[in-house]
Amino acid sequence: MRVVAAGAGVSAVRLAAIERLVPKALAKVRGPFEGVPSRPFDVVVHRSLDALPEALRSELHPGTPGFAMLGRDEVHLVLDEVQLRPPHDLTTVLAHELVHLLIDQYAGEFAPTVPRWVHEGLAQHLSGETYLGAREDDLLYPAAVGRLSRFRDLARAFPDDEAGRLVAYAQSESFVSFLVRKVGVDVVVEAIRRSTELDGYVGGFALRAGTPLGWFEDEWLLWVRDESGARWRFFFQNCFSYSMIGGLVLLALALIRRLERDDRARRKLLREEQDLEQAESEDTAP
Ligand SMILES: [Zn+2]
Protein backbone atom coordinates (compact mmCIF):
# COMPACT_ATOMS: atom_id res chain seq x y z
CA MET A 1 0.00 0.00 0.00
CA ARG A 2 1.24 3.47 -0.87
CA VAL A 3 -0.13 6.87 0.11
CA VAL A 4 0.86 9.40 -2.52
CA ALA A 5 0.18 13.09 -3.05
CA ALA A 6 -1.25 14.14 -6.38
CA GLY A 7 0.01 17.66 -7.05
CA ALA A 8 1.10 20.37 -4.65
CA GLY A 9 -0.50 21.47 -1.39
CA VAL A 10 -0.56 18.13 0.43
CA SER A 11 1.84 18.27 3.37
CA ALA A 12 4.10 15.41 4.40
CA VAL A 13 2.51 15.52 7.86
CA ARG A 14 -0.95 14.99 6.35
CA LEU A 15 0.30 12.12 4.19
CA ALA A 16 1.90 10.47 7.22
CA ALA A 17 -1.36 10.80 9.19
CA ILE A 18 -3.31 9.15 6.34
CA GLU A 19 -0.66 6.43 6.11
CA ARG A 20 -1.35 5.60 9.76
CA LEU A 21 -5.12 5.58 9.22
CA VAL A 22 -5.21 3.24 6.21
CA PRO A 23 -4.29 0.02 8.09
CA LYS A 24 -6.90 0.81 10.76
CA ALA A 25 -9.61 1.40 8.15
CA LEU A 26 -8.56 -1.74 6.28
CA ALA A 27 -8.63 -3.84 9.46
CA LYS A 28 -12.18 -2.65 10.14
CA VAL A 29 -13.60 -3.85 6.79
CA ARG A 30 -11.46 -6.64 5.37
CA GLY A 31 -12.77 -9.48 7.58
CA PRO A 32 -15.25 -11.13 5.17
CA PHE A 33 -13.02 -10.83 2.09
CA GLU A 34 -10.82 -13.89 2.22
CA GLY A 35 -7.46 -13.52 0.48
CA VAL A 36 -7.64 -9.82 -0.28
CA PRO A 37 -6.15 -7.33 -0.77
CA SER A 38 -4.38 -9.55 -3.24
CA ARG A 39 -2.79 -6.68 -5.15
CA PRO A 40 -1.04 -3.58 -3.81
CA PHE A 41 -3.19 -0.45 -3.87
CA ASP A 42 -2.60 3.31 -3.78
CA VAL A 43 -4.33 5.99 -1.76
CA VAL A 44 -4.00 9.12 -3.91
CA VAL A 45 -4.42 12.40 -2.01
CA HIS A 46 -5.59 15.62 -3.72
CA ARG A 47 -5.60 19.01 -2.03
CA SER A 48 -8.91 20.29 -3.41
CA LEU A 49 -11.54 19.85 -6.09
CA ASP A 50 -9.64 22.36 -8.25
CA ALA A 51 -6.54 20.20 -7.99
CA LEU A 52 -8.44 17.12 -9.15
CA PRO A 53 -7.62 16.24 -12.77
CA GLU A 54 -10.53 16.91 -15.12
CA ALA A 55 -10.80 13.22 -16.06
CA LEU A 56 -11.41 12.25 -12.40
CA ARG A 57 -13.96 14.92 -11.44
CA SER A 58 -16.97 12.96 -12.64
CA GLU A 59 -16.00 10.14 -10.23
CA LEU A 60 -16.57 12.31 -7.16
CA HIS A 61 -20.17 12.67 -6.00
CA PRO A 62 -21.09 16.15 -4.71
CA GLY A 63 -20.64 16.43 -0.96
CA THR A 64 -18.27 13.47 -0.63
CA PRO A 65 -14.50 13.52 -0.22
CA GLY A 66 -13.42 10.24 -1.83
CA PHE A 67 -13.93 7.64 -4.54
CA ALA A 68 -12.40 4.35 -5.65
CA MET A 69 -11.08 3.67 -9.13
CA LEU A 70 -11.99 0.03 -9.62
CA GLY A 71 -9.64 -1.94 -11.82
CA ARG A 72 -6.86 0.55 -11.03
CA ASP A 73 -6.62 -0.37 -7.34
CA GLU A 74 -6.78 3.28 -6.31
CA VAL A 75 -8.63 5.16 -3.61
CA HIS A 76 -8.72 8.93 -4.14
CA LEU A 77 -9.19 11.47 -1.35
CA VAL A 78 -9.90 15.20 -1.71
CA LEU A 79 -8.68 16.81 1.51
CA ASP A 80 -10.69 20.05 1.35
CA GLU A 81 -13.90 18.02 1.16
CA VAL A 82 -13.09 15.91 4.23
CA GLN A 83 -15.19 16.71 7.31
CA LEU A 84 -14.54 16.14 10.99
CA ARG A 85 -17.60 14.00 11.66
CA PRO A 86 -18.84 10.75 10.05
CA PRO A 87 -19.81 9.83 7.44
CA HIS A 88 -17.39 12.12 5.59
CA ASP A 89 -14.47 12.03 8.01
CA LEU A 90 -11.18 10.48 6.87
CA THR A 91 -11.52 7.14 8.65
CA THR A 92 -15.08 6.46 7.41
CA VAL A 93 -14.33 7.58 3.85
CA LEU A 94 -11.21 5.42 3.71
CA ALA A 95 -13.11 2.41 5.08
CA HIS A 96 -16.00 2.94 2.62
CA GLU A 97 -13.77 3.30 -0.44
CA LEU A 98 -11.54 0.40 0.62
CA VAL A 99 -14.61 -1.87 0.67
CA HIS A 100 -15.19 -1.01 -3.01
CA LEU A 101 -11.59 -1.87 -3.74
CA LEU A 102 -11.73 -5.13 -1.75
CA ILE A 103 -14.97 -6.23 -3.49
CA ASP A 104 -13.34 -5.55 -6.84
CA GLN A 105 -10.26 -7.64 -6.04
CA TYR A 106 -12.27 -10.38 -4.30
CA ALA A 107 -14.70 -10.70 -7.24
CA GLY A 108 -11.91 -11.39 -9.75
CA GLU A 109 -13.50 -12.33 -13.07
CA PHE A 110 -16.96 -11.46 -11.68
CA ALA A 111 -15.94 -7.87 -10.83
CA PRO A 112 -17.87 -6.24 -13.70
CA THR A 113 -21.08 -8.04 -12.69
CA VAL A 114 -21.19 -7.11 -9.00
CA PRO A 115 -24.37 -5.01 -8.62
CA ARG A 116 -23.98 -1.41 -7.57
CA TRP A 117 -26.35 -1.96 -4.62
CA VAL A 118 -24.08 -4.75 -3.33
CA HIS A 119 -21.05 -2.44 -3.61
CA GLU A 120 -22.73 0.47 -1.84
CA GLY A 121 -24.64 -1.70 0.62
CA LEU A 122 -21.51 -3.49 1.82
CA ALA A 123 -19.40 -0.29 1.79
CA GLN A 124 -21.92 1.42 4.09
CA HIS A 125 -22.62 -1.61 6.26
CA LEU A 126 -18.96 -2.48 6.88
CA SER A 127 -17.76 1.12 7.33
CA GLY A 128 -20.56 1.58 9.86
CA GLU A 129 -21.97 4.75 8.29
CA THR A 130 -24.51 5.54 5.61
CA TYR A 131 -23.43 7.65 2.66
CA LEU A 132 -24.56 11.24 2.00
CA GLY A 133 -26.47 11.10 5.29
CA ALA A 134 -28.95 8.56 3.85
CA ARG A 135 -31.29 7.12 6.52
CA GLU A 136 -33.55 4.09 6.75
CA ASP A 137 -36.36 6.46 7.76
CA ASP A 138 -36.15 8.03 4.28
CA LEU A 139 -37.44 4.71 2.92
CA LEU A 140 -40.71 4.75 4.81
CA TYR A 141 -42.73 6.95 2.46
CA PRO A 142 -41.45 5.43 -0.84
CA ALA A 143 -42.00 1.95 0.67
CA ALA A 144 -45.54 2.81 1.77
CA VAL A 145 -46.54 4.09 -1.69
CA GLY A 146 -44.63 1.44 -3.65
CA ARG A 147 -42.04 3.89 -5.03
CA LEU A 148 -38.85 2.09 -3.93
CA SER A 149 -36.65 0.85 -6.79
CA ARG A 150 -36.39 -2.90 -7.22
CA PHE A 151 -32.80 -3.98 -6.67
CA ARG A 152 -32.51 -5.33 -10.21
CA ASP A 153 -32.95 -1.68 -11.29
CA LEU A 154 -30.05 -0.61 -9.04
CA ALA A 155 -27.62 -3.18 -10.43
CA ARG A 156 -25.74 -1.00 -12.90
CA ALA A 157 -26.31 2.57 -11.78
CA PHE A 158 -28.10 4.71 -9.20
CA PRO A 159 -30.56 7.47 -10.16
CA ASP A 160 -29.03 10.74 -11.38
CA ASP A 161 -31.17 13.03 -9.26
CA GLU A 162 -30.07 13.81 -5.72
CA ALA A 163 -33.24 12.58 -3.98
CA GLY A 164 -33.31 9.33 -5.96
CA ARG A 165 -29.62 8.72 -5.30
CA LEU A 166 -30.09 9.27 -1.55
CA VAL A 167 -32.91 6.71 -1.40
CA ALA A 168 -30.82 4.25 -3.46
CA TYR A 169 -27.95 4.51 -0.94
CA ALA A 170 -30.35 4.18 1.99
CA GLN A 171 -32.12 1.12 0.59
CA SER A 172 -28.82 -0.55 -0.37
CA GLU A 173 -27.50 -0.16 3.16
CA SER A 174 -30.79 -1.25 4.70
CA PHE A 175 -31.16 -4.34 2.48
CA VAL A 176 -27.56 -5.50 2.85
CA SER A 177 -27.74 -5.05 6.63
CA PHE A 178 -31.03 -7.02 6.59
CA LEU A 179 -29.37 -9.82 4.56
CA VAL A 180 -26.42 -9.85 6.96
CA ARG A 181 -28.82 -10.29 9.90
CA LYS A 182 -30.66 -13.10 8.09
CA VAL A 183 -27.85 -15.12 6.50
CA GLY A 184 -24.58 -13.63 7.80
CA VAL A 185 -22.03 -11.38 6.15
CA ASP A 186 -19.98 -14.33 4.85
CA VAL A 187 -22.90 -15.55 2.70
CA VAL A 188 -23.52 -12.05 1.33
CA VAL A 189 -19.86 -11.69 0.39
CA GLU A 190 -19.19 -15.26 -0.79
CA ALA A 191 -22.15 -15.03 -3.17
CA ILE A 192 -19.98 -12.62 -5.19
CA ARG A 193 -17.60 -15.45 -6.12
CA ARG A 194 -20.50 -17.83 -6.78
CA SER A 195 -21.99 -15.46 -9.40
CA THR A 196 -23.55 -17.37 -12.27
CA GLU A 197 -23.24 -16.66 -15.95
CA LEU A 198 -27.00 -16.38 -16.28
CA ASP A 199 -27.99 -14.35 -13.22
CA GLY A 200 -24.73 -12.92 -11.89
CA TYR A 201 -24.82 -12.09 -8.17
CA VAL A 202 -28.53 -12.99 -7.87
CA GLY A 203 -27.74 -16.52 -9.07
CA GLY A 204 -24.68 -16.76 -6.81
CA PHE A 205 -26.71 -15.66 -3.80
CA ALA A 206 -29.41 -18.28 -4.42
CA LEU A 207 -26.71 -20.99 -4.68
CA ARG A 208 -24.87 -19.87 -1.54
CA ALA A 209 -27.88 -19.01 0.64
CA GLY A 210 -30.22 -21.76 -0.62
CA THR A 211 -33.05 -19.20 -0.91
CA PRO A 212 -33.70 -16.81 -3.79
CA LEU A 213 -32.68 -13.19 -3.26
CA GLY A 214 -36.17 -12.09 -4.40
CA TRP A 215 -37.71 -13.80 -1.37
CA PHE A 216 -35.46 -11.78 0.94
CA GLU A 217 -36.28 -8.61 -1.01
CA ASP A 218 -40.01 -9.10 -0.40
CA GLU A 219 -39.36 -9.87 3.28
CA TRP A 220 -37.18 -6.77 3.60
CA LEU A 221 -39.87 -4.58 2.05
CA LEU A 222 -42.42 -5.80 4.60
CA TRP A 223 -39.91 -5.27 7.38
CA VAL A 224 -39.19 -1.68 6.32
CA ARG A 225 -42.92 -0.91 6.24
CA ASP A 226 -44.02 -2.65 9.40
CA GLU A 227 -41.20 -3.67 11.71
CA SER A 228 -38.12 -1.51 11.20
CA GLY A 229 -39.39 1.11 13.66
CA ALA A 230 -39.02 3.75 10.95
CA ARG A 231 -42.72 4.54 11.24
CA TRP A 232 -42.40 5.32 14.97
CA ARG A 233 -39.15 7.25 14.48
CA PHE A 234 -40.91 9.26 11.77
CA PHE A 235 -43.84 9.91 14.12
CA PHE A 236 -41.71 10.95 17.08
CA GLN A 237 -39.43 13.13 14.93
CA ASN A 238 -42.54 14.94 13.74
CA CYS A 239 -44.11 15.04 17.20
CA PHE A 240 -43.08 18.65 17.69
CA SER A 241 -44.81 19.69 14.47
CA TYR A 242 -47.92 17.74 15.41
CA SER A 243 -47.99 19.26 18.91
CA MET A 244 -47.58 22.76 17.42
CA ILE A 245 -50.52 22.16 15.07
CA GLY A 246 -52.56 20.65 17.94
CA GLY A 247 -51.71 23.66 20.13
CA LEU A 248 -52.86 26.10 17.44
CA VAL A 249 -56.14 24.20 17.02
CA LEU A 250 -56.79 24.32 20.79
CA LEU A 251 -55.96 28.04 20.83
CA ALA A 252 -58.39 28.70 17.97
CA LEU A 253 -61.15 26.71 19.76
CA ALA A 254 -60.56 28.65 22.99
CA LEU A 255 -60.73 31.93 21.06
CA ILE A 256 -64.00 30.94 19.38
CA ARG A 257 -65.51 29.96 22.76
CA ARG A 258 -64.38 33.26 24.27
CA LEU A 259 -65.93 35.25 21.39
CA GLU A 260 -69.20 33.32 21.72
CA ARG A 261 -69.24 34.00 25.48
CA ASP A 262 -68.62 37.72 24.89
CA ASP A 263 -71.36 37.80 22.28
CA ARG A 264 -73.85 36.12 24.63
CA ALA A 265 -72.97 38.58 27.41
CA ARG A 266 -73.30 41.53 25.02
CA ARG A 267 -76.73 40.36 23.83
CA LYS A 268 -77.86 39.75 27.44
CA LEU A 269 -76.79 43.27 28.39
CA LEU A 270 -78.63 44.67 25.37
CA ARG A 271 -81.79 42.78 26.31
CA GLU A 272 -81.61 44.05 29.91
CA GLU A 273 -81.16 47.63 28.69
CA GLN A 274 -84.15 47.25 26.34
CA ASP A 275 -86.27 45.80 29.20
CA LEU A 276 -85.24 48.69 31.45
CA GLU A 277 -86.03 51.25 28.78
CA GLN A 278 -89.41 49.61 28.19
CA ALA A 279 -90.18 49.57 31.91
CA GLU A 280 -89.25 53.25 32.24
CA SER A 281 -91.39 54.21 29.25
CA GLU A 282 -94.35 52.32 30.77
CA ASP A 283 -93.80 54.15 34.11
CA THR A 284 -93.77 57.52 32.44
CA ALA A 285 -96.68 56.74 30.12
CA PRO A 286 -99.75 58.91 30.78
ZN1 LIG B 1 -19.48 4.01 -2.34
Per-chain topology:
Elements (H helix, E strand, L loop, with lengths): L1 E5 L5 H18 L12 E5 L7 H4 L8 E4 L4 E5 L11 H18 L8 H12 L12 H5 L17 H22 L1 H9 L6 H10 L3 H14 L3 H8 L1 H46 L2
Parallel strand pairs: 1-2, 2-4
Antiparallel strand pairs: 3-4
Helix pairs in contact: 1-3, 3-4, 4-6, 6-7, 7-8
Bound molecules: zinc ion (ZN).
Structural class: alpha/beta
Helix content: 55-70%
Number of separate strands: 4
Tally of separate helices: 11
**Main sheet overview:** 4 strands, mixed
Shape: elongated
User: Which molecules are bound in this entry?
Assistant: zinc ion
Strand content: 5-15%
Rounded to the nearest angstrom, the distance between the terminal CA atoms is 120 Å
Strands ordered across the widest β-sheet: 1-2-4-3
- Give the mean pLDDT: 87
The radius of gyration computed from the alpha-carbon positions, rounded to a whole number of angstroms, is 31 Å
Could you spell the SSE succession in H and E letters?
A: EHEHEEHHHHHHHHH
**Which stretches are poorly predicted, pLDDT < 50 over at least 5 residues?**
none
Q: How many domain units?
A: 2
